[in-house]
Amino acid sequence: MLEETNSSVHVEPVDKQKIWNLWKIAILLGVVTTIEFILAYTMPRGVLLIVIFVTLTLVKAFYIIAEFMHLKGEVKALVWSIALPIIFVLWLILALILEGSAIFDLRY
User: pTM of whole model > 0.85?
Assistant: First the structure.
């Protein structure tokens, strides 16, 4: 025999503040991406352009992690346990690139 279950769905009212915060982050990410595209086509290639790109990418990564991965309201120890290894890995990559370049320049 089939049993009928009476399930009711409770619909919450739309939280306009949360929606506006998401739109603000999306607009900010769009503006930063637009700035990156404009700089990519107008600035000459070089170290300054790379530094600007890395900085803007880190800004975008911060907002994505904070808002969409919900780490903005987390305990600071959790945030640092994620951020410190990333910082060390980036430092390692930079050190390897610089050392590899120096060894290549000495050898050739």
Answer: no
Task: Report the distance separating Cα 32 and Cα 29, nearest Å.
Answer: 5
pLDDT tens figures, 33-63 = 999 999 999 999 888 888 899 889 988 988 8
- Which pair of tokens denotes residue 82? 């994620």
Residue type, 90: L
- The tokens describing 50, both together, are 């790379």
Please state, in angstroms and as integers, the Cα–Cα distance from residue 3 to each residue in 6, 9, 66, 67, following that order: 10, 19, 45, 43
Amino acid present at 9:
V
Per-residue DSSP letter, 25: H
